[in-house]
Design brief:
This protein has about 300 residues and is mainly α. Helices cover about 70% and strands about 0% of the residues. The chain has 15 helices and no strands. It has helices at about 25-35, 35-55, 55-80, 85-90, 95-100, 105-120, 125-145, 155-170, 180-195, 200-205, 210-215, 220-240, 245-265, 265-270, 275-295. Helix 7 (about 125-145) packs antiparallel against helix 8, helix 9 (about 180-195) runs antiparallel to helix 12 (about 220-240) and helix 9 packs antiparallel against helix 15 (about 275-295).
Length: about 300
């Protein structure tokens, strides 16, 4: 899913753009090239959602494995596609750009992970697996094309909006998720997209990446990230029962404070990594609230 396609600010260095790859143990650089932090975050969120929705251990493990494979494929695809731009930007945090990995190794890893994702997804059921493969396809479309267009937000919205459906469709009876869960996931992912690109807008524009956040600019993108994150939290807090619980009220209040800091804080903070960190904190709070909601309604955890 697209959340793995952008990670960390760019660091400039004197490293020659055409540097010859150096011999180094393959596993660690390959793992770093997969964008491990966001990949682990998405996979962990999937595990929490699977638990909240009542998936059994075996079905939950299959779903988590499918998401992990998809995330790895998307991360490696991103680094391979962005190789030339990352070298030009002097990305010291990218093993491929620094020459410690060969392009062929990363490309092969991406396709192997993608191939593994297919049977792992379909093991969750034909309909559920098809939904997840559609999510992964949206993420690859982002890497290959849409990240440079005004529709850069769309893969995030679609892929993460459908993640709950992937899990609920793996349940007995194959139910679709409630509207509020789909809406909250989609808005949270849209917010993450806007927040995630804020530190790199200038470098992105210089490299020819003109997604919607880059076209809108830093101030407008920060506002969009804040508004959609707050809306996601409100929907998630109100949706299960139609009223706000104590934990939901705390979540809404915390999110509002984070959003205000992101939008109205000093330029040195609002223009850097703070909005991204705030969105990730909101995602963690959302996941906790989902688990709590599932634990209090064992007969049908996420349906009113």
């Amino acid at each position: 899913m697209p959340a793995t396609t952008e990670e960390g600010p760019r660091h400039r260095t004197g490293h020659p753009p055409g540097a010859t790859p150096v011999e180094t143990p393959l596993l660690l650089p390959l793992l770093k090239a997969s964008h491990p932090v966001p990949a682990a975050a998405v996979t962990g969120l999937t595990a929490l959602l699977a638990s909240a929705l009542g998936l059994g251990a075996a079905a939950g493990l299959e779903a988590v494995a499918a998401v992990a494979a998809g995330q790895l494929s998307v991360g490696w695809c991103n680094d391979r596609v962005d190789l030339r731009r990352d070298r030009a930007a002097g990305r010291r945090d990218k093993p491929l750009a620094m020459g410690t990995l060969r392009p062929g190794a990363v490309g092969t890893a991406a396709f192997v992970a993608l191939l593994a994702c297919v049977p792992l997804s379909l093991a969750c059921g034909l309909l559920a697996g098809s939904v997840h493969l559609g999510c992964v396809a949206a993420a690859w479309a982002y890497n290959l094309w849409l990240k440079r267009t005004v529709l850069s937000w769309l893969p995030y919205t679609v892929a993460f909006g459908l993640l709950p459906a992937f899990l609920t469709l793996a349940l007995p009876g194959r139910p679709w998720p409630p509207w509020w869960l789909t809406a909250a996931a989609a808005m949270l992912a849209t917010s993450a997209h806007f927040a995630n690109v804020l530190p790199d807008i200038e470098d992105d524009l210089a490299g020819g990446v003109r997604g919607l956040p880059q076209r809108l600019g830093r101030r407008a993108s920060t506002a969009w990230a804040a508004v959609t994150a707050f809306a996601s939290c409100v929907v998630l807090a109100v949706g299960p029962t139609g009223s706000v619980s104590l934990s939901g009220g705390v979540l809404i209040g915390t999110t509002l404070v984070l959003c205000l800091i992101s939008v109205a804080g000093p330029p040195a903070l609002s223009g850097g990594r703070l909005p991204f960190a705030a969105i990730m904190a909101m995602a963690g709070a959302d996941a906790v609230l989902l688990v709590l909601a599932g634990g209090t309604q064992p007969a049908g955890p996420l349906w009113p």
